[in-house]
């Protein structure tokens, strides 16, 4: 027994000595110096007590920035009604449909009107399932630890997305009004359905690779993929409902009175109440100072439909993007817009302002990275899409603030809208989708260059949610 004790002691001392001799770790001397970071002053104790019982953002509120907000905008696109994505990551879908919705309301004098987000989301989930499974087939000869194979299995499906998904899905499957395929619980709260789909798709993806290893042909794999998609389709129907193939639509005037009852398919409804120009005659812009401006970039596999388009964008300086946005708004055309929404956002007020919170005073340190550095270190990226619908210009025509139609319900922010200062816009705006006619001839000519292909795991892949 004594020998065992001595042996254990010797091993412990050896491990301890090894840990102490290894460079780069925190030894006792370094720890004593690190501990000097907290002095336990009266101010330190007061802050510690406050953080122990209160939300950090409430403690960091900059009281000097609490004056009433100016909600007037000199240039604004009219709209009616606020949508609500609830507990889902479908902001990209709501934003894309809201761009077309405002046009339909204006053209036909409709009351509060919504397209069915559930309908388009159904096809999104089916197409993304096919995208994943076909991706597994395409990479069947690569090892499991290949970066693309690993990325596919880590990201089989999700409820986030980008505008190119809206364009591809609506063009392929059409549109229906909300009342024809209303929101379901799984549409409003997608996490449980997404968990089931991810589990099933990963199992199916592994099965396809096993079939390939056993010598099955590509045609055999694609036939099996079709059977797998039947199961996915059933799961989607059980969660979201059956997508309609035809329906009646009671068109109402602004007073809510029925003007006419029309019979439609999803495609005829798109043709009349959608806007195919929004879906086809647009360009995708990005402000990414971590990469060279005036270049076109394409992110591999950043799409919703296998035979659709990847997110492909022209990287422009912010000043040029602003001028393009202002030109579109002046002609009453709202735009799909995405940003890093939770940075310096006062949700109750609906104000995104760099001066909202003073974390530096609270914690006695600095947070000094610029936009380029935040992108490079994964500290910031595009996380949420909204509908850019207004700008306020000063006497010299310079923007001072912007307004977006959000999809968090009418009880969030300024009646469902968010206001962002121009300084905030510079730091946290990323994506803008706008009509081609608002670009200069020089900017349009840049689209002729061959896109620089970026991998699927690029920081700018982030889906808007």
Q: Any idea how many domains?
A: 1
Could you give a short account of the major beta sheet? 12 strands, mixed
User: What is the count of DSSP helices, taking H or I runs of 4+ residues?
Assistant: 18
Any idea what the CATH superfamily is called? Cysteine proteinases
Counting DSSP E segments of at least 2 residues, the number of strands comes to 14
* Secondary-structure-derived class: alpha+beta
Radius of gyration: 26 Å
What is the helical fraction, as a range of percent?
40-55%
Query: What proportion of the residues form beta strands (DSSP E)?
Result: 5-15%
Structural commentary:
- There is one protein chain.
- By secondary structure, the chain is an alpha+beta fold.
- It has one domain (75-461): Cathepsin B, Chain A, CATH 3.90.70.
- It contains 18 helices and 14 strands.
- The protein has helices spanning 2-21, 28-34, 42-53, 56-60, 91-108, 117-138, 147-154, 163-173, 185-188, 191-213, 218-240, 266-273, 276-280, 318-330, 359-363, 371-376, 422-428, 441-445, and strands spanning 75-76, 247-252, 258-264, 282-286, 296-299, 312-315, 335-339, 345-346, 351-352, 384-393, 399-405, 417-421, 429-435, 452-454.
- The strands form 2 sheets. Strands 1, 4, 5, 6, 7, 8, 9, 10, 11, 12, 13 and 14 form a 12-stranded mixed sheet that branches. Strands 2-3 form a two-stranded antiparallel ribbon.
- Strand 2 (247-252) and strand 3 form a beta hairpin.
- The longest helix is centred in the middle third of the chain and has 23 residues, at 191-213.
- It is globular.
- 36% of the residues are buried.
């Amino acid at each position: 027994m004594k020998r065992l004790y001595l042996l254990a002691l010797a091993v412990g001392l050896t491990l301890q000595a090894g840990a102490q001799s290894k460079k780069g770790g925190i030894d006792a001397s370094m720890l004593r110096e690190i501990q000097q970071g907290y002095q336990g002053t009266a101010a330190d104790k007061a802050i510690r007590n406050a953080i122990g019982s209160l939300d950090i953002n409430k403690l960091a509120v900059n009281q000097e920035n609490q004056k009433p907000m100016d909600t007037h905008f000199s240039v604004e696109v009219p709209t009616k009604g606020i949508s609500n994505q609830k507990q889902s990551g479908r902001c990209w879908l709501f934003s894309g449909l809201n761009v077309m919705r405002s046009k339909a309301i204006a053209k036909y004098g409709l009351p509060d009107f919504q397209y069915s987000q559930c309908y388009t989301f159904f096809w999104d989930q089916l197409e993304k399932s096919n995208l994943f499974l076909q991706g597994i087939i395409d990479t069947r000869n690569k090892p499991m630890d290949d970066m693309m194979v690993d990325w596919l299995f880590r990201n089989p499906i999700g409820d986030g997305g980008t505008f190119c998904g809206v364009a591809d899905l609506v063009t392929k499957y059409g549109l229906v009004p909300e009342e024809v395929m209303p929101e379901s619980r799984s549409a409003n709260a997608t996490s449980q359905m997404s968990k089931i789909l991810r589990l099933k798709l990963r199992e199916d993806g592994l099965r396809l690779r096993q079939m390939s290893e056993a010598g099955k042909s590509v045609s055999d794999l694609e036939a099996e993929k079709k059977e797998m998609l039947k199961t996915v389709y059933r799961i989607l129907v059980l969660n979201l409902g059956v997508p309609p193939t035809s329906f009646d639509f009671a068109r109402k005037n602004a007073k809510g009175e029925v003007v006419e009852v029309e019979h439609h398919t999803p495609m005829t409804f798109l043709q009349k109440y959608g806007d195919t120009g929004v879906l086809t005659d647009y360009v995708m812009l990005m402000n990414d100072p971590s990469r060279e401006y005036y270049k076109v970039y394409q992110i591999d596999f950043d799409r919703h439909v296998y035979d659709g388009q990847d997110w492909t964008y022209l990287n422009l300086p912010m000043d040029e993007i602003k001028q393009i946005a202002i030109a579109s708004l002046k002609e009453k055309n709202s735009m799909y817009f995405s940003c890093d929404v939770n940075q310096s956002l006062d949700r109750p007020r609906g104000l995104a302002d760099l001066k909202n919170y003073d974390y530096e005073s609270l914690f006695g340190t600095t947070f000094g990275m610029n936009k380029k550095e935040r992108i490079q270190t994964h500290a910031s990226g595009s996380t949420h899409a909204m509908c850019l619908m207004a700008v306020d210009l000063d006497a010299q025509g310079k923007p001072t603030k912007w307004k977006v139609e959000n999809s968090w319900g009418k009880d969030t922010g300024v009646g469902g809208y968010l206001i962002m200062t121009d300084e905030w816009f510079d730091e946290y705006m990323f994506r803008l989708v706008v009509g081609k006619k608002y670009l200069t001839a020089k900017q349009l000519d840049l689209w002729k260059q061959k896109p620089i292909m970026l991998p699927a795991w690029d920081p700018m892949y982030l889906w808007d949610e």
